[in-house]
């Protein structure tokens, strides 16, 4: 066998990291539960379509989330990447690849019925059943997601549902994703969205499931009333202390903050996955609703990604 043929044989046998990722995710995604949510609505608009077509459309939607692809972008990548074709079970010689309009219409169908929220709930129900989400404590945090601030568009205006905020001396324009994370496993159990100008603390109550015995957060969540309420409810207050003007933190407060920060750091992991690994750093759509639906999908998939090894071991 020639050197070139040997190399090609090894290349075909070697599983790429992308393929390994897609295989792992495919094995832990609760496809039947997801498809059961879509099917009644899908059949209304897609008469004569088979269930396999419906699953393929959902797979394409998930590929968009993992690889940060637009509707035309994912269509092109399906033609270009063998790993995508393998994940979808598509033979380019025999099968038709959905065009960008079909992909767009499928996303609109999901949004119309808010099925992304159901996906998030289904994933968390699964993780609770498997004992991977505990309800002992919650860590809260928020992240800013940038939106286009330019007015060089057809309407000569910025998105009215986005707003500006200042953080670390810099101004940002966009929205916020607020999450409540299981303090033990670091999995997202609650999600809220808002315009960027909404204070993190304003969404804290919506991120709690009510069964916490401990609450953790950064200095943005400090509040006298909230602290008193936590003590009355016998919930451990793990929010970082904040220095006041002309009143620096004591050495004991600094030590406490350092201890709390080690616990609180788990809330950064989901943000790291969707923003650094999956490249979701800017809103894709106008308005809060569509972007909120996408965030529900991203964090549902993020939870499965973070728990995939344990889920595969339990299956």
UniProtKB/TrEMBL annotation:
A GO MF annotation of the entry reads: DNA binding
Question: Hey, which family's this protein in?
Answer: Belongs to the transposase 11 family.
> Could you confirm whether the keyword Isomerase appears in this record?
no
Q: What is this protein called?
A: IS5/IS1182 family transposase
All copies of the Transposase IS4-like domain together span 135-304
NCBIfam families reported for this sequence: transpos_IS5_4
- UniProt entry keywords in alphabetical sequence: DNA recombination, DNA-binding, Transposition
User: A Gene Ontology biological process annotation?
Assistant: DNA transposition
Which residues span the membrane? Answer: none
Q: Which Pfam families match?
A: DDE_Tnp_1, DUF772
- Enumerate the spans annotated as Transposase InsH N-terminal domain: 15-108
Q: Which InterPro entries match?
A: Transpos_IS5, Transposase_11, Transposase_InsH_N
Job of this protein? Involved in the transposition of the insertion sequence IS5.
On the tree of life, the source organism's domain of life is: Bacteria
